[in-house]
Write a structure and sequence with these properties.
This protein starts with 79 loop residues before the first strand and ends with a strand. It contains 1 helix and 27 strands. Strand 9 and strand 10 form a beta hairpin. Helix content is 1%, strand content 56%.
């Protein structure tokens, strides 16, 4: 034992396969049961806005017009070419081109041409117009302008063809027009709440080898927003015209000028809207103050609106303006502007989600209202102006529209005029006592658009040789049309006019064409 080495220790190796684990937790088992059925019916209330748009319908005469400047355009489809041909030897062409990005610069160019030859000698006409507009946008303003011109040719064919035999050059009325406009307006209201849009327009109008009429118009409208409800408006207007004849002995020359100042206070409240103002006006050597008071009172959650007003205005009777109404005018030796003062009341109503009606009745007093009479002292082919110094008109106007989204639009309106209290004339020569206008547009399906228009009127009084008074028969003009998209940007179109073949006379001795049609191709790019 004494010799045992005590520095060495015994070592024991233990090998085990045991691994510690957690005991499984005891799970709670649920016993599933069926839910009881709920037999109660929930009361759900939906308030979905009407999916349609309401437009104010206003019947207008059917005339070719240049498109107005529009700075909000579909940039992907701004250009188009439209052409066609129809009976009565009728070529038709129309085009529109746009340039620029509509953010900094926008240039539009429009043009159209149409002509026809009737089945009566000299029953021909042609219309050609071209217009260009430009808009340049700064940060807060828009500078815009335009230039245009046109030539419209008519013929005085309303004579007795069994007695007279005129060549085309002897009865030609060739109107030529050149115009230019420049303006400047703010696109954002200034910090002081002021909006402005001054414009200057010049125009030269001629009846070839007969007369020249030149006009300059300056218009300065201003508006200041005082509060959310109140605003002040001020309008300054100068309309200057020079008229002179060509080839007449003695020559006729005169000026026709109107100046107006129109201050106005506007209240737009939650209960009613009201405009209160007056318009001092200087018509050549005559001074007048015209009323300008009108307002609206919505009722029954704006489903009904009562309208009323006491308003006045001047209609400038230049040769250009009157020939746009009746293109068979003779030259005249003086121009008298019409003063119109009206007291009216009316109502607008949203009867249903898609149906809107309105009615308006008023009494209008006219001074120097122009009537159109045949020149019975000669061959009755031209019309003279007979001014009525004072006359009253009981005017009633009603309109209705049905609009279902963008698929179907139906509008209709009528106007009655009852003249009384004549001073210088026996009757209201050349006027229309009753007129009805209606139109329908139906997007039958995505590629087909159908349309129809109706114009009907009662005949007015006119004078024949021997100072006899007669009444015209009136007329009905029904038209229809269609446009079918062949491919994405190419369409076929067809317009059929005067379907009833009613050869009425809007102006005495001037019979219109019978049924006529024009069709062709429309390309958008």
């Amino acid at each position: 034992m004494a010799q045992k080495d005590s520095t060495k220790h015994a070592v024991i190796d233990i090998t085990s396969s045991y691994k510690p684990v957690m005991r499984n937790a005891v799970k709670i088992n649920f016993s599933a049961t069926n839910l009881n059925a709920d037999t109660s019916k929930p009361a759900l209330s939906y308030n979905i806005p009407s999916q349609n748009l309401f437009y104010t319908y206003q019947p207008i005469s059917l005339k070719p017009l240049a498109l107005d400047r529009d700075t909000i355009l579909d940039l992907g489809n701004r250009n188009y070419l439209k052409g066609g041909y129809g009976n009565y030897s009728t070529p038709y062409f129309k085009a529109g081109l746009s340039f620029g990005d509509a953010k900094k610069l926008l240039v539009n160019v429009y043009g159209d041409y149409i002509s026809s030859q009737g089945d009566i000698k000299n029953q021909d006409y042609s219309q050609a117009n071209v217009q260009s507009t430009i808009s340049y946008f700064t940060r807060n303003n828009e500078i815009y302008g335009g230039i245009g011109g046109g030539q419209n040719t008519y013929y005085l064919y309303g004579y007795d063809h069994s007695i007279y035999d005129y060549s085309a050059s002897q009865v030609r009325q060739r109107f030529q027009n050149i115009s230019a406009t420049i303006g400047f307006r703010n696109t954002d209201i200034t910090g002081s709440g002021i909006s402005y849009d001054p414009t200057i327009a010049v125009n030269s109008f001629t009846n070839q080898n007969k007369l020249t009429e030149q006009t300059a118009i300056a218009n300065v409208p201003l508006e200041m927003k005082l509060t959310d409800q109140f605003a002040l408006k001020l309008g300054l207007n100068a309309d200057i015209t020079t008229y002179s004849t060509t080839g007449f002995i003695p020559a006729i020359k005169f000026n026709n000028n109107i100046y107006q100042v129109a201050p106005e206070v506007v209240y737009s409240g939650a209960v009613f809207n009201l405009h209160v103002g007056f318009t001092p006006a200087w018509d050549n050597n005559e001074t007048n103050v015209l009323p300008n008071i009108y307002g609206e009172l919505p009722l029954a959650k704006k489903k009904f609106t009562i309208q009323a007003g006491f308003v006045g205005k001047y209609d400038k009777n230049t040769y250009q303006n009157l020939s746009a109404i009746n293109p068979y005018l003779a030259t005249f030796a003086a121009e008298r502007n019409t003063k119109e003062v009206e007291v009216y009341g009316g109502i607008k109503a949203n009867i249903a989600k898609h149906f809107v009606v309105s009615a308006k009745a008023g009494v209008v007093r006219f001074n120097n209202l122009p009537f159109f009479i045949n020149d019975t002292a000669t061959d009755s082919k031209a019309f003279l102006i007979s001014n009525e110094s004072s006359v009253h008109d009981m005017r009633i106007h009603g309109e209705a529209s049905y609009i279902s989204e963008e698929k179907l639009t139906i509008t209709a309106g009528f106007t009655t005029n009852t003249y009384a209290g004549f001073t210088d004339n026996k009757r209201a020569w050349g006027t229309v006592p009753f007129e009805l206008n209606a139109s329908a547009r139906w997007q039958a399906f995505k590629r087909l658009l159908l349309k129809s228009d109706l114009v009907a009127f009662a005949g007015g009084p006119y004078i024949t040789k021997g100072d006899a008074t007669k009444t015209s028969a009136g007329g009905v003009d029904l038209s229809a049309g269609a446009e079918f998209s062949v491919v994405k940007r190419v369409s076929l179109w067809l317009d059929v006019n005067n379907i009833l073949n009613d050869k009425y006379q809007r102006w005495n001795n001037y019979q219109v064409y019978g049924i006529n049609f024009v069709g062709g191709l429309l390309v958008k790019f």
